[in-house]
Amino acid sequence: MTQQQAAVAIIMGSDSDWPVMKAAAQTLTDFGVSYEARVVSAHRTPDLMFSFAETAVANGFKVIIAGAGGAAHLPGMVAAKTTLPVLGVPVPSKHLQGQDSLLSIVQMPRGVPVATFAIGEAGAANAGIFAASILALTDAALAQKLVDFRKRQAEKVLAMQLPE
Ligand code: RP5
């Protein structure tokens, strides 16, 4: 039996990134999008990073969400080795609160783009939504789920009451 290949790869530099990156995984689950999550470190497992990126298309991935903290080279280096869309999530770091992660990910040289999201959980969740939006271009049912999600979100905000 052939196993169905996940549409989205979620990779991160360390298992310590998972508490943030699981927001991307949860979002994809909510939209019914298949994903595979794993640790791939740019600095500690560079060979794995390159082989992951080089085989990502052949492995059936359509979008890669990459999260890292500190000297966050993972999203950019993966983008250097694949033409799949790479969504970068800056993970908060111990000493610089993720500003280092953000700047490392966002300042890509012309020609090798990484779509960079907000620092932390909101960024990870938005990367999940963005991945769903990309896949929805060729999936009408998923596009409808995104419309429904926006509607529910708006209704929630419209129903907000402030304390007296
Ligand atoms: C980065 O270094 C990882 O993405 C993580 O955010 C950070 C710290 O990693 P650990 O020391 O917790 O493994 O490569």
UniProtKB/TrEMBL annotation:
Record has Glycoprotein as a keyword: no
Gene3D superfamilies given in the database record: 3.40.50.1970
Catalytic activity: 5-carboxyamino-1-(5-phospho-D-ribosyl)imidazole + H(+) = 5-amino-1-(5-phospho-D-ribosyl)imidazole-4-carboxylate
SMART domains: AIRC
Binding positions for substrate per the UniProt entry: S14, D17, R44
Annotated keywords: Isomerase, Lyase, Purine biosynthesis
Listed GO biological process terms: 'de novo' IMP biosynthetic process
Keyword Lyase: yes
Domain of life: Bacteria
UniProt GO molecular function: 5-(carboxyamino)imidazole ribonucleotide mutase activity; lyase activity
Domain PurE: 6-157
SUPFAM superfamilies reported for this sequence: N5-CAIR mutase (phosphoribosylaminoimidazole carboxylase, PurE)
The family this protein is said to belong to: Belongs to the AIR carboxylase family. Class I subfamily.
Name of this chain's protein: N5-carboxyaminoimidazole ribonucleotide mutase
